[in-house]
Automatic annotation (TrEMBL):
It is an enzyme of class 5 (isomerase). SUPFAM superfamilies: ADC synthase. One of its GO terms (biological process) is salicylic acid biosynthetic process. This is isochorismate synthase. PANTHER family: ISOCHORISMATE SYNTHASE ENTC, ISOCHORISMATE SYNTHASE MENF. InterPro entries: ADC_synthase, Chorismate_C, IsoChor_synthase. The keyword Isomerase applies. It comes from Ktedonobacter racemifer DSM 44963. Keywords: Isomerase. Belongs to the isochorismate synthase family. The keyword Isomerase applies. Pfam families: Chorismate_bind. GO terms for molecular function: isochorismate synthase activity. It catalyses: chorismate = isochorismate.
Amino acid sequence: MPLSFQHSCSAPIGIRQSEVEAKLQSLLARAIAWAQRHQHPIIASLSFPLDQFAPFHLFAVLQHLELSHRFFWLHGQECLIGAGTSLVLEAQGADVHRILKQKWEAAREQVVALGDEQVTDVLPTFLGGFRFDPQARHTSSAWRHFPDGALILPQVVFRSTQGGCSLTINHSITPEDTVLTCESAIHLVLDRIFQISASLAQDALFRSGMVSRDVDTSQEEPWKQLVSDAVRAIRQGTMSKVVLARSMRVNARSQSSFDIPSLVYRLHQQAPLSYIFAMQFQETAFVGATPEQLVAAQAGKIRTMSLAGSALRGQTVETDACIGQALLTSRKDREEHAIVTDTIMQQLGPLCNTLHRPVLPQLLRLPTIQHLQTPIWGQLRQGYSLLDAVSALHPTPAVGGLPSDGARTYIRTYEQMDRGWYAGPLGWIDLNGDGEFVVALRSGLVQKQTATLFAGCGIVANSQPESEYQETCLKFQVMLNAIQGQS
Ligand SMILES: C=C(O[C@@H]1C=C(C(=O)O)C=C[C@H]1O)C(=O)O
């Protein structure tokens, strides 16, 4: 049982500090010998097996460390929780994807994985993401801690996969280091984690509801006007589709800040099939529960999906089935969906030896909304990696529009909102290039007592401002419920 979602589990970390310390010495000695043999500094990635860990409780523990970055990722049995920075790869500007890929490739020479014999398959893992549009003006200071693109190797990473759980410590080592000096630096962090996890009562964490909210709805009419203008531009032939988003500010009524571990816990309770993520840079957290995978890679095989076309969930089994059937047969939604699927096939074609998709879309049923979905899979050509696939796919027409450049320019000019990392690629990649990126939807930027939530929808020639507005309301729901304390 790698992950423990139970609150009854007594310890957030399924290993004793003494066990880590015993193994640490021999791994550090090997790492120093490696640096001496090659005569240059390295980042040693030291991994230990764990029996299990309690993800939400552990994430709450990490909030108490005086570290600049924290990460949370959970999807099925795959969970990554990290804190601190051992290596930060950043890039800015229009060329962010190419620059970050180069930096990631260079970093592969710098990082050396040294696992305990039981975890030889655990590889150093970077977490990060990209702005939706690095060429757009940065109008909101709320995103100031988020670069256009970043991949970060955290100082500590707890990981769970189907194969088991591990703890990884990433630590810089020079040929001059001794086991003693390295050990004491690592102990500073480990001691804090074990101390806090022993003293932090986990049942106190998630019992109380989140603070109540004040929602600002003043932007309804201007946003509907934006949709009408886009419909007119589409009918005039400027483009065939554009995805327009809006933001909603939510303020805590009480003085207490939004609690990020509680928020991710509630998001998971509400949307267990979605990807639950939190990227905390300084005091700002980008948090969400997205249903949309951008692309995953494992040993050169990639998987992705197209997701476009939305409808509500029905109150009863019968109405739900009816709404689902109507979505599957809706001409507007099927056309919108086909455009997204065809574009993904075209974008990935040059990168792949083989690429497959079923003929018809299926329904992806989420608690408050359902979507048309088509799975797509293939084999990457030699020389291409997950980061090339991310760069080729982003932005998909599901979050940008068509044609891509025209839609992006339209969004940049008229949307009047700083998307920041909303609708951008977000995920993880290991040293071998295996990993997964999602489209960061159903998300919000949380800063102390304020949260800015984001939602958008695809506008085509026959879109109605009122129903598009209602669709964004539906898409806000998962974050709103989590913030209000519903799970
Ligand atoms: C843009 C969003 O969602 C995207 C747009 C959809 C649509 O237009 O039907 C459906 C799913 C997503 O690809 C969002 O959730 O903010």
